Amino acid sequence: MTWGKQDLEKTTYVPIQYDPECPFKYNNFVYSITLSRPLTSPEDVKTEHSDGQLRQQQPQPEPQPQPGSVGIPVGTRDLILRISNPDAEGMHSATRVENEVAILNLASAALRHVEPAVVPRVFAWGSASTAGSLGWILQERMRGAPVNEDFGAMSLEQKLGIVTQMAEILKALQDYKLPEGITGWGGATFDGQGRIVSAGMPSVGSGPWGSFEDSYRGRLHTAIQRADANPYIQGWRANGVRERLDAFIERGLPAQFAALAFKSDRVIVHADFTTNNLLYDAFSHRITALLDYDFAAILHPAYEFLRSFDGAGGQLRGWSGDESSEDATLRQAKLEGRFPSPLPANSDAI
């Protein structure tokens, strides 16, 4: 394929959901790319010579794709480029791009039966593991409108349709049989043969762990290490707080997991499964895409409900001293799976 100066000048790059006044650092800089002409059209095998004549190029061997990537389909013109922000808070670069690409591949396999396909294909990627490098992912641009922009104005029947599809997608992710290389709880990456294997969790900077309980123990140890390095918090050592934290990790944490059923379960966890990251077709009301796998991991299925479903009434939030009795009742119903029928007329749960 030969691209000239005019092709590049006609290619457009538009940032997506970027606010320069945003108070927090973005995890990624996301751009929508529209090429001047289809990237793999038949015309791309021709090249212009100095005499102005177009001649057919000699066939070239197909390059070997990177692990987790596929060739760009003929006629593709619209793409998405995600560039990792090295200054993102709480994100560790060692395998963050590899983890996202690996989970995208697992999710695509788990949801292969869904039509249209809801997981974007990866065309190329670059690791962020080298100091000073910007990781990136070039991927398919999915069609549809953001669900969160229209969800509030939908009828109850339309909301139920969206939530039902979300539940079907979630079940498929959790039912998927993970490859043999996934042996722990945490992140994922590729080995030397391109197989998906367990790795550290990019949002924690450690792992993989041998159990779901160990994953929380690892997260707590990481948080305490950061506190030790903080000159203001100083490891929470004043007034015996640090001793109580250490005691909780040693003796209290196991008690929290003692009654957890199916504690050996490992599934694909999107960890940001919200209406913000869903696209849908406004005519058919079918979900067309599940996006943004930046926080995705391999963890216990319960973890999804602690991190996802904000905006659709499904997230399990923590206890607070000023919560209403309705909030407490709703949380208990979510935990037990028992909801009143009919639902209260003023319920915003769905």
From TrEMBL:
Pfam family, one: APH
InterPro entries linked: AGP_Transferase, Aminoglycoside_PTrfase, Kinase-like_dom_sf
Protein's UniProt name: Aminoglycoside phosphotransferase domain-containing protein
Annotated Basic and acidic residues bias: 43-52
Region described as Disordered: spans on this chain: 40-71
Lineage: Eukaryota, Fungi, Dikarya, Ascomycota, Pezizomycotina
SUPFAM superfamilies: Protein kinase-like (PK-like)
Domain Aminoglycoside phosphotransferase: 76-309
Coiled coil (residue ranges): none
